[in-house]
Amino acid sequence: MTAEFRAPGVPGEADAGGEAGRSRSWTAALRRRLGALVPPGQLLPDRQPVYVASWIYVFGVLTLAALVVVLLSGGWLAVGGAAWWHVSSLGRFVNSLHLWSVELFFAFMVIHLWGKFWMAAWRGNRALTWITGVVAFVLSIATAFTGYLSQSNFDAQWISTQAKDGLNSIGFGAWFNVLNPGQMLLWHVVLLPLAVGLLTVVHVVLVRRHGVVPPLDAGGGE
Amino acid sequence: MTAVVVVLAVSAGAGRYLHWGVISISMTNLLIIVAMVIVFVLAIVLPFPGRTRQPEREREDRP
Predict the structure, then answer these.
(1) d(CA A98, CA A21)
(2) Are the beta carbons of B36 and A54 separated by less than 8 Å?
(3) Of A55, A62, A130, A209, which cross-links A108 as Cys (Cβ 3.0–4.6 Å)?
(4) Which residues of B touch A51 (CB under 8 A)?
């Protein structure tokens, strides 16, 4: 392994000498790769194409905003625990905040999905953007499902007993046991939010990379 | 406390369901879906504030 020491200095210095002069360290390679993910100036742009000035283009960011509230209220519930969210006034408020932000998250996401479906948003090399959105939607449903199973009340018991036969019939029951509240809680607060969060980041980066899809009659989408 | 829970459970009832053949949906869920469709249509037809400003550069040079 070749050790190469550079004094901290000019950004982009490693690229100054072209391909031959590039540092071969993994940090420089990762930096170049991350820098190339999104065209310059498009990570957080302050200008958008004129067709974005429409209410139907608002629902993507509304979904993101609702997701932030979902994650923050869910983290708060995790700190307090089940006894807290069942018996204290503040706990019940945060529990309701979590529920209603999820309701809005899904409503916004579905309207976002309708809008993108009817404008064929996979045009112009945006297929992966569409696919990551669809997979994030499906994983969000799984996350909400495990959330209902983690309420620690009779509703959770009822839903789990109704769901077990279906999941057992397709062979999932051995490793995804809806009658095991501890396992469902961990899927709900760790694995599935992590997957939804990562996919959301990839989805947003892809949107920034390829730009917001234009309406069908605007041209320029292909 | 138990009496309160029982009263609340009885007053809440089972909810009203609509049936069309194999399709069964609660009135609550149907109203939510109708509301979402209305919001979707309004989002398409309502003008966006500031829409009349000068057109900005469209990014047609995207990959």
Answers:
(1) 52
(2) no
(3) A62
(4) 58
